[in-house]
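Lay summary

Proteins are chains of building blocks that fold into shapes. Our project writes down both the chain and a compact code for its shape. Here are two examples, one after the other.
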Amino acid sequence: MGVKVTQSSLKCITSHNKTHTFHLFLLQFQPLYQTSPQLFVSRMVMKVAVIGAGISGLTSIKACLDEGLEPTCFESSHDIGGLWRLKEKPEPGRTNIYQSVVINSSKEIMAFSDFPPPAELPNNMHHSEVLQYMRLYAQAFKLLQHIQLQTAVVSVRQTLDYASTGQWEVETESKDGQRETRVFDAVIVCTGHFTHPHMPLKDFPGIESFEGRYFHSWHYRNSEGLQGKRVVVVGIGNSGGDIAVEISRVAEKVYLSSRSGAWVVSRVGQGGIPADLIGTSRMNLFMERLLPSWSNMMLEKKLNKAFDHKLYGLKPKHGFFAQMPLVNDDLPNRIISGRVQMKPNVKEFCGSSVVFVDGSVIDKVDVVVFATGYNYSFPFLPAALQAKCGYRLRLYKHVFPPALTKPTLAVVGFIRGFGAVNPLAEMQARWATRVFKGLATLPSEETMIKELEKDTVIMHQRFACTELNPIQVDYIPYLDSLAEEVGVRPNIPWLLLTDPRLALQLLTGPCTPYQYRLTGPGKWAGAREAILTQWERVLQPFRTRVVPEPESRPLSRRGIIVMVSGAALLCCFCYNKHLQGSLLSLQSFFRSLQ
């Protein structure tokens, strides 16, 4: 039975003070409250605290608004953007990027599901263009009015009546040190995991007496001050690869130290198309599942055709799909030109020398950059919610702590897969808000824990998970599993019957986020068009200098005569060959009769 709030009743309610307003509200809905207190509470607007205004935070705010919830986002810095906002100086406790960062995922893969990026933006955007796209999204859906900047979350704790209400006390601190505690019906944590640099100095004997300078890649901005230096970069993740390449353009020599190696992929795929748009369809996924070893072997063979990873000192022990690859367009060129030299793991430091595990030594090293990853931390959460299962947080489907009696806290964006994080975070937020509202339900705690533990075992078997890389998921299957929970998974068999053109795009084209807006809650009328026009947006940025097609000239009379004559001679030649063959066959036949 629905409840209708008339415009006149709202005006009446808002015209009185808070106490009188609430009494009027109770009187107006007293029959409903007496018959079903739970339904009464569910009819009231839920207030949701969103922590962090990066990409995950923005999608969470929008997911709340889509479900009729009331979000308040707390962002500790002075602007939105999270990781993609370049800081003039590194800010402790916040993510940081260097000036030259270009996103590894192409724009169609990392797009918001109901807000395609402008066609003129490059496929692999500079960080400033990613931030521009985020601002356009925030403005289009009026998200900024729900964000409180320069407000840090100090603690999140359950209210005394949490068992019955599921509510949380969120304590915040403003830039001038003023603290405030407010009560929220639900909380979404969107702080990411690139905030606390991992510096394993104890693993490098002698570093305390190293005569040069050393720092974590979190502090790196550009190559200024490294001209003519001898630099060692420790770690071969995406940051390590980028920084080694960039420094090598000005340094005397750069040595890139790696313990395990990495598969290197380029952003530029076959024919110049973004590489992540090729071989990432549902059909490709089917083949990978059907023939996993063969798929892995063929992909590695293709990568080694570009350059031999073993020859270049890059080949890892793990297969391609076991760990995220290094996305870098320039590293092979810097190695072949001698500007970057690959080295194994560092054994120790001796004065200004670096000793490697193979016994080789590099003397007179000026600078060491530790690109050794990040530790994840959620200091504002209760310790019980930071329990681990293996290396990962103890979260059901990487979102909900299963031990909570009320599913009113979710972690969004703490996830990695072979694809952009943005669509994963957006789908997590859509699911979380449906659960908050009671429109989607979670299994029992026992079932969630069993599934979580089973999922962790499988994840550790399939992927090279570590303390610094605790999570990796199968990109499309994970998206589909959450889409199933939300009710937005595309029905491809049905589409094959009703809209075969669209269905073929879903099957054979890249898995872009618009697929999850075709049906169900949050359905977007422009989703089909966005899918069918995605290649136009891919090609548009290349059209800055259109190369004219060569003019097709009609054949002259002489040309026609030459072509006809040539065809006639070819026919005669073939006919003669056939005739000779027939005569020889007849001769053989008659000889056999004699």
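And here is the second example, written the same way.
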Amino acid sequence: MFPLYNEFLLPAVSSGPRKKFSLTYAAKNLSQFVAGEKQFSNEKVLFGIPWRLVVFENHDEIVGLSLSCGQCVQDSRKWSLSIEVELKLMSSSEKGFSKVRRLLVKTLTKIELQLLDTEDLIENFVSAESVRIQVDVKILEQKELKYETKIFELTYPIQNLARFENRESQSSDVRECFKVPWSIFVEKNHDFLSCHLMYEKELCTPNDWHIQGVCTFYLKSDEGKSFCNFYEIDLKGPGTSGDDHFIKWEDLIRNYSIDDSVTVIARVQITSLKRSFMKEGPISKSFVISQQFGGISSVLEGETLIGSEEKRFNIPWTIKMQRRSGFVVIFLYCRRKSYPHQIWTVYAKCWFKLVSANGKSLMRLQNAVFQCEDTCELDKFTRWEDMMTDYAIDDYVTIEAHVEIYDIVEKDIDLLAPSLSNALDEQTFYAGSFFSAFTISNISRFEDDEKQWGNTEKRYNIPWRLRAKKSFDFLEINLFCDEENIMTTNKLVEAECTFCLVSSNGNSLKQKLKLYFGRPGGQGVCRLVEWSELEEDYAVNDRVVIEAHVKIKKVRELSHEPLPIERSCVLSHTVRNIANMEESNFIFNITEEWYYVLWGISLKCNSGFVELQLNWENELFENESWTIQTRFQLSLIGANEKRITQYFEHTFDKPGSSGDSKFLRWEDMVNNYAIEDSVRVEACVRFIHVIATPPQKSFAMFYTLGNLSNVLEEEHHFSLTEKHFEIP
């Protein structure tokens, strides 16, 4: 309940004489309190620190009391305090209540003391709907903290207070202070004024500052009345900090309104300003689309202007603008195609920006969740007449949408638990059975993680393959439902399989399992028998036979379209002269760049084995970071398209490799897969999530080329020269 301080028993000794004072306040109209409402005592400056009592009700209907200690307006000092606080409630019926706490407080914080719930408070302590509060404070220790601070002020006159509707908002022009764009954002939040400091998102800037400090909002009247409250700032990237219930709207109108307007002052003290290269939350994709709308003076009530469709990350997006009840309403449509038996959700932050040719702009932030063909709507962006007066030039305005997609969740129903399989549209349903076997040879020379593969056999139009592996001194057997490409898997197979280990000496071993194949890869028995027991009891002439007796229960054909092109890639390369390849010699093939990363395949002769890897090739810049979650398959392809395929899941956070150092023995590849001393290697990669933080020094340039039909052969067009990092 007390997140802003540490509470503990303090020693009885202190440095220097103790300083004491009391604050009193009569809280009124408590029975009419609503969630978020606050009452403030007058501010007192004692021992160089301003103190104030704040009475409020939170959303759990608990009345709370804050002892607010901050800084004087023109004072940038920061304190560390050890204090003892005693809280007393008094009523005319002589009922009382007290609570004592000892606290360690760093200034610019609020000490929250929980009281009784509202009903008990009214019943036991309120006389004429008021209660007298007294807080006795003993300062046990006071130290000044040394720190560097950056201070600036923003002012904004809120206009036309009388016509404000609920959820209507205004904001100041953007001002850059300490390399960060700032503005004041105000809104009528039911019966309150909502007041926030906004760290704006700017086009073509890194937007990766981590900012800590304090913002104090002030209101002042002609009669000398003042009202203020301060709030801690902790912003990691663009966002807002402030109060949804800064002051009651009726109090604002009655005490501070002058000619239907009031001026808000934001005094900002930044105590920490640094780059935050790893953002919280998996930001994977960001983009900006811009749409110019013309003829806006002739737009009628209820009419909608529709922008052109633009594709970003293979998803079509459209901006729309509507005139509704005298306000501008902005829509962003996500028209991503939905595939049968697939559920997807896009989570994003959308910064909508109204841009004028006169240099003015207005920005709003909206969190959005898109499912199928979905839309993000921002109601009451600004009044239509204000847009015409302040932003429209030659009857045109521009709307920008700055979108950060921080998560895409895809659920393929064919990957769900078998209990959900009855939800699928079944196109085929049948039962069948088959038998597959192969002989494991050279058992005595097997190394840990070495594998041998049986031949691929098609049964019921499905390719199957057995694999034997030495894993931690045990025999592991897997049956693969061996589709050729992880991007085209389109079957859900339910089967029963009996794995058998058969020896020519008469010994045998069996194990029965239920298998569900909804994604590429193998399933089977991890530890069928210890390897030493395999050699002693089953191997004859260094060989043993493994069998799979399979009963197919159900096969469901799924309508599965290929993954969008930007989410997958295929790399392929023919490796030549393999007979002359020396030990530890690499053959690299860099074929494609995806997400500004170079991907390639490497093949290496490693201690008599084929080592096959997917490689992230290029180096990172300073302060650049990536997290790339992948699912991929590596294949070695020989004569008559005979192949060995293995499946992997790996998250890359730096340049490196992932694959198998013992894909198969080198001599087996040469004897069974090589054609004219060559073999083909292939990687099919699916990008699940990509989280990218660009290097500190980066920029983008934009240039619109018009009048395309009149461009002549070899004619050149140039953008304006821009200076970035002192370079034109």
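What can we say about the second shape? The mean pLDDT is 76.
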